[in-house]
Amino acid sequence: MDNLKFIKIDDNSRVPKYQQIVDSIIHNISVGNLTIDQKIPSINMFSEEFYLSRDTVEKAYNILKERNIILSIRGKGFYISRTKLISKVNILFLINKLSSYKMKTYNSFIDSIGGNSHTDLHIYHCDESLFLNLLDKYKALYDYFVIMPHFKTDDLKHVSFTDPVIKAIKKIPTEKLIILDNIKPAIEGNIVEIYQDFENDIYFALKEGLPKISKYMKLVLVYPEKAVYPYPRRILHGFRKFCIENALDFEIIDKVYDDMVLKKGDLFITIEEADLVNLVKQIREDEFVLGKDIGVISYNDTPLKELLGITVVSTDFKVMGERTAYMIMNKEKGKFKVPFNFIDRNSI
What we know:
single chain, 348 residues, alpha/beta, Arc Repressor Mutant, subunit A, Rossmann fold, six-stranded parallel β-sheet, six-stranded mixed β-sheet, 17 strands, 36% helix, 21% strand, elongated
């Protein structure tokens, strides 16, 4: 076939032959030598032309099929299935849950990274097994791996990393690895870390709001002790540290119960939106004035909280996405602490 003339295999290169096939086909798509729906050589024809084993060519074709770059049609052969490439930078974006603020990070990343890349988003739902399967399946297919590490134990508590997760992550070349939203495990090498500091973030944000917070008699943190998508316990540590240092009466409960005992002078800090909705509903039903009789602070900002005038302590998820894209595009390494803000509205 004529398009074989575009394929280059270097016998002296240390790059595996199957990877050279993948790279050569992707390159020729990116420069226009191969186009969508164009037929490419069969595995047998390719192996004969370049004196390669059939297994080598088959491995390359399987990788290209996994990435939806080629497709096979029974009885007809292999065809180019996409030309919207992937030609410069391929990115795997692994997040633990599909929430509004995680998606804000992702969308900010996509807006910032530009059209010279292709990003695949996968959600592993804080499940270690699903995460490990995804990483094993795609470990050879991407130029960068953006990973948000948050996992749940069997009893639905949060853990940042497990031994199998660390072992799997260490197989990724450090120049391809970006740890997002959390602190890295013991990984040697200079990697990208764009992170929250959960304990100190809430501590310093609440400290910023102390002039208003101090008017309340009791602070109540609603921290889900067991959740499908659990939260770092470092949030608890930061909250306790703030209350103890400022001699504030406090309590930690695991959810907003129906028919809560609400008292004038209470200030609630909620994490899950369901608890926020239930709390505000009960405040109104009991005819308390929000922001005067009872205060509410919510963890992590959303457009709805802004619309309703709910005070929040929140990471800047837009900056998180922008900074990730910036460091990839500029090939920068190192750490970046994402801003965490106290945003004062009408609910305290």
